[in-house]
């Protein structure tokens, strides 16, 4: 067993999930460079995930899913990210949304049950489409400029969404829109087959290129009245604690672990002619290796501890918003630091396109811009302390 996991795999079920994810990650690792260089969605990876029944891991058992815990979810995310960060982050949105809906029961039961059964039987994909050019991150509470108008018992939706991860692979889009008649904001469940919905390839980024977080354009998209699945309260920044969002820090820690492993393998084998031994025996290299592992220990034990508390004590969840945000803050900044240390160990060779470290370096930068942003975390933690 990987020495990084001997303290974290507590049960036979967790070991089984880890091994299933590890086997997939090994396949994904071989494809990661191509998907990154071409900025193409990893459809092959998701075919493998569907065959392995991973898209229904968070579906409740009553609907045929595995109903994994938050802790188990993070194990899977962290492991898959070691193979391909973009695949892990994309998968995390889908699995996390289902986990959150199962917990909060915000959708009409009939709709949620139908979607769950489609996920189990057909391994369909869904994700939210909330961000917009004018509003920025929905976590900051901006009101969507996308509109929904009620006409003759149907909804007509028009607008443009940005940062829609998995856009070319989605079967359903959860679109936030301002209802024209009332000014309220709702979430609408829209199938990819809806007339007037199209994807525009806009995702040309430094990191996480294979998530294909393209723009979604809605031009007078008509959907049934039941498409309105949830009314949203604003500002979003004051929302309830959301444990499922820990899939984000788990993903970036997984990328950092991949960088750490790459650097250690290099240090054990690289021996310049100025030395009589590999650079792994150089004290400064050992110091950097120790720094990587100490940073990872602190972040991972914190993350898994909070996930365990979330699972064990549902009655405490409402008071865990600050801890959840702090996990993301610490984990993503740790990931940046660990990848930087890994590149310092490997040196100039880490800059070559064929070296995965340069991809890890670019991918972990994206974590700083996933919700919640560092300044929001600082604000809410300080706010609780100063109450």
UniProtKB/TrEMBL annotation:
SUPFAM superfamilies: Acyl-CoA dehydrogenase C-terminal domain-like, Acyl-CoA dehydrogenase NM domain-like. Gene3D superfamilies: Acyl-CoA dehydrogenase/oxidase, N-terminal domain (1.10.540.10), Butyryl-CoA Dehydrogenase, subunit A, domain 2 (2.40.110.10), Butyryl-CoA Dehydrogenase, subunit A, domain 3 (1.20.140.10). The keyword Flavoprotein applies. Residues 142-151 have a biased composition (Basic and acidic residues). InterPro entries: Acyl-CoA_DH_C, Acyl-CoA_Oxase/DH_mid-dom, Acyl-CoA_Oxase/DH_mid-dom_sf, AcylCo_DH-like_C, AcylCoA_DH/ox_N, AcylCoA_DH/ox_N_sf, AcylCoA_DH/oxidase_NM_dom_sf. Keywords: Flavoprotein, Oxidoreductase. GO terms for molecular function: acyl-CoA dehydrogenase activity; flavin adenine dinucleotide binding. This is Alkylation response protein AidB-like acyl-CoA dehydrogenase. It comes from Parageobacillus toebii NBRC 107807. It holds the Pfam family Acyl-CoA_dh_M. Residues 130-151 are annotated as: Disordered. The keyword ATP-binding does not apply.
């Amino acid at each position: 067993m990987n020495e990084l996991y001997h303290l974290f795999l507590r049960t036979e079920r967790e070991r089984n999930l880890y091994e299933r994810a590890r086997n997939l990650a090994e396949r994904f690792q071989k494809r990661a460079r191509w998907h990154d260089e071409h900025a193409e969605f990893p459809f092959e990876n998701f075919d493998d995930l569907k065959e392995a029944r991973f898209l229904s891991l968070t579906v409740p058992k009553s609907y045929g899913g595995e109903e994994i815990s938050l802790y188990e979810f993070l194990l899977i995310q962290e492991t898959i990210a070691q193979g391909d960060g973009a695949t892990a982050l994309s998968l995390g949105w889908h699995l996390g949304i289902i986990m959150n809906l199962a917990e909060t029961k915000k959708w009409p039961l009939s709709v949620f049950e139908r979607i769950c059964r489609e996920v189990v039987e057909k391994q369909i994909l869904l994700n939210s489409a909330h961000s917009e050019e004018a509003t920025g991150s929905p976590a900051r509470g901006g009101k969507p400029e996308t509109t929904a108008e009620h006409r003759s018992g149907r909804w007509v939706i028009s607008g443009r969404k940005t940062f829609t991860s998995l856009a070319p692979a989605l079967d359903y889009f959860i679109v936030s829109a301002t209802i024209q008649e009332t000014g309220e904001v709702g979430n609408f469940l829209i199938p990819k087959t809806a007339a007037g919905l199209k994807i525009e390839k806009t995702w040309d980024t430094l990191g996480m290129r294979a998530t294909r977080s393209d723009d979604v354009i809605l031009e007078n998209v008509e959907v049934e009245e039941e498409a309105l699945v949830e009314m949203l309260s604003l500002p979003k920044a004051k929302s309830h604690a959301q444990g499922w969002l820990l899939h984000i820090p788990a993903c970036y820690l997984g990328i950092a672990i991949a960088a750490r492993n790459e650097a250690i393998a290099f240090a054990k084998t690289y021996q310049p002619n100025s030395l009589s031994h590999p650079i792994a025996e150089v004290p400064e290299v050992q110091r950097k290796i120790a720094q990587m592992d100490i940073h990872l220990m602190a972040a991972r034990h914190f993350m898994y501890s909070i996930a365990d508390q979330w699972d064990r004590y549902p009655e405490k969840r409402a008071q865990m918003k600050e801890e959840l945000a702090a996990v993301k803050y610490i984990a993503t900044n740790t990931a940046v630091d660990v990848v930087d240390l890994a590149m310092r160990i490997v040196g100039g060779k880490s800059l070559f396109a064929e070296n995965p470290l340069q991809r890890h370096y670019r991918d972990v930068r994206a974590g700083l811009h996933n919700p919640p942003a560092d300044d929001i975390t600082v604000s809410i933690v300080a706010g609780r302390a100063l109450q």
